[in-house]
Design goal:
It contains ten helices and 17 strands. It is α+β, with helices and mostly antiparallel strands.
Length: 376
């Protein structure tokens, strides 16, 4: 009788202890069943596509600085023909058949040179070829018939240029002789790409002061020139870095002048949130798309993510616009990918039931590890 009572009590205890394990199993099974009906999760193939895009983006960034060095070597010869003469340059002037007119002359502080017969000639801001034409006009109009004149720069003055923004070593740089945009970017250590917010964008700005001759000409061309004050002005030249570096568009590798400011803006940022592995910001450059941004934060979470993705975009007046897409259809090329803009917020959908399952799994690890496992 006593043995029967002990067996009965033992059976009740065993059953009471097994209830949590059985209940947890039922909850998990129901959640899995319902969640699978609520929308397909990210499959392994989709994740592989996103990760492949992330690797491609990483390789592309390192390639940009390699291309920078390559293009510098190809393009240096272009800068000499466009070099603009300035104070302190030493010019070698040769007049064919008139050795007595040959001179080495240094440009003075007013940008002038003095030569036999023609006297003082303004040369600042002109290229050697332009100086040749001007001297040919001066000598040809009064002293020589069809003169043939060559002008070369024997010594270059020291020039100062500022390089700022997303470069490895921003600061002021002295340059002797003609230099191009690529040469100055290389001198500043190349484009910055340290991840996060420390990445160069897709363009470079060359901010240039107008010379007095250029400014005078601009004022004369305006109807209200007489009412405008004579003050220094600047112009900004915008260069597409992708075309210059990746496509080799050497026409964009412009000559740099004394006093130029070369500014490389940092890339803008988009923010990826929701059902992804590592929520955070990504640099908006290289025509960044939605799938590339998701790939850069580790891809969609295989447990929590759904295929619904919202892109929230803010206008100039603060108004927001929501673009909703199906990620699986984009990856299957059934829908176009979405190009992202600066300050876009990407929200990858999360399944509420999958999230609940995930929380239960985290809070009750002992139910699977054997905390309730009893021997009969």
């Amino acid at each position: 009788m006593e043995n029967l009572m002990l067996q009965s009590a033992s059976e009740k205890i065993r059953r009471s202890r097994l209830v949590p394990y059985g209940l947890y199993s039922i909850i998990c099974a129901l959640l899995l069943l319902v969640s699978s009906a609520c929308g397909p999760a990210m499959v392994a193939d989709d994740q592989a596509k996103l990760l492949a895009q992330a690797e491609s983006q990483k390789n592309k960034k390192s390639l940009q600085n390699q291309q920078l060095l390559t293009q510098v070597g190809r393009a240096t010869f272009l800068s000499y023909k466009d070099y603009q003469v300035g104070p302190e340059d030493l010019l070698d002037v040769r007049v064919f058949g008139q050795d007595n007119l040959n001179r080495e002359v240094r440009v003075n502080g007013q940008g002038e040179i003095s030569l036999p017969l023609v006297g003082v000639v303004k040369v600042t801001g002109l290229s050697p070829q332009e100086i040749e034409k001007r001297l040919a006009q001066e000598y040809g109009s009064r002293f020589l018939r069809h003169p043939h004149i060559t002008v070369g720069v024997k010594e270059y003055r020291h020039q100062r240029v500022a390089v700022t923004g997303a470069v490895d070593k921003p600061g002021f740089y002295d340059m002797i002789g003609p230099r191009t945009l690529l040469e100055m970017l290389a001198a500043a250590g190349g484009l910055q790409d340290k991840g996060g917010n420390a990445r160069a964008g897709d363009v470079v700005h060359v901010i240039r002061s107008q010379h007095a001759s250029e400014l005078t000409r601009a004022l004369k061309e305006t109807a209200s020139a007489s009412r405008q004050s004579f003050s220094p002005r600047t112009k900004t030249i915008v260069i597409d870095l992708r075309r210059l570096l990746m496509e080799g568009a050497l026409d964009l590798n412009i000559p740099i002048r004394h006093g130029d400011v070369i500014h490389v803006p940092f890339a803008g940022n988009a923010y990826v949130l929701g059902g992804v592995r590592r929520p955070g910001s990504v640099a908006v450059k290289d025509n960044l798309t939605l799938t590339q941004a998701i790939a850069q934060v580790g891809g969609a979470d295989p447990v929590l993510a759904t295929n619904q993705v919202d892109v929230i975009r803010f206008g100039e007046q603060g108004a927001s616009q929501k673009i909703t897409v199906d990620l699986s259809k984009i990856l299957a090329h059934e829908q176009p990918d979405v190009p992202l803009k600066d300050s876009d917020v990407v929200v990858v959908g999360q399944s509420g039931l999958r999230k609940a399952l995930f929380i239960i799994k985290e809070l009750m690890p002992g139910s699977i590890s054997g905390a309730y496992r009893l021997t009969p």
